[in-house]
Amino acid sequence: STGAGGAVASGGSGGGTAPGSGGAGGQTATGGASGHPGGGAAGGGASGHGGGAGTPQGTKVATPGTNLEVRSKTLSGANTRAVALLNRDGSAASITVQGSQIGIPAGPATVRDLWAQMDLGSFTGSYTAQSVPSHGVVMLKVAGGSP
């Protein structure tokens, strides 16, 4: 069906039941307003997945450089966080997140790249994502030990 704003969307105007479906304001069925699977609906809402276009989720916890941002959100389970490393710059950059910035206790923490679906290993104190593409995002799950 065609949603508001002339976008082709499987759920029509105002939201659907599948991630990235429905919505208004130019949303597509493949990625929602954010361009990623499960992205949110602009002005609509896609069954609770994602947020509106340009609306980052989580709390900004650090700005490690110009146009670089670290956002974190607590997940279920002890000392487990979703972490987004955002590069809003015009060139690739390395972005470091400190365990203390995201509320992970001192000691080793396991890091998983959620989009690559790959475990990255155990790190103590901090993790650095190398060569985050220009205007790119690295989405991590970080789990630390008990406090």
Report on this model:
The protein has strands at residues 59-65, 68-74, 80-87, 93-98, 108-113, 118-124, 126-132, 137-144. It has no helices and 8 strands. Mean pLDDT is 73; it is low at 1-52. The chain has 147 residues and is mainly β. The chain starts with 58 loop residues before the first strand and ends with a strand. The strands form 2 sheets. The protein has a 6-stranded antiparallel beta sheet, with no helix packed on it. A two-stranded antiparallel ribbon has the order 4-7.
Task: Spell out the key features of this protein.
147 residues; 6-stranded antiparallel sheet; two-stranded antiparallel sheet
Topology (elements, then pairings):
Layout: E1 59-65, E2 68-74, E3 80-87, E4 93-98, E5 108-113, E6 118-124, E7 126-132, E8 137-144
Antiparallel strand pairs: 1-2, 2-3, 3-8, 4-7, 5-6, 5-8
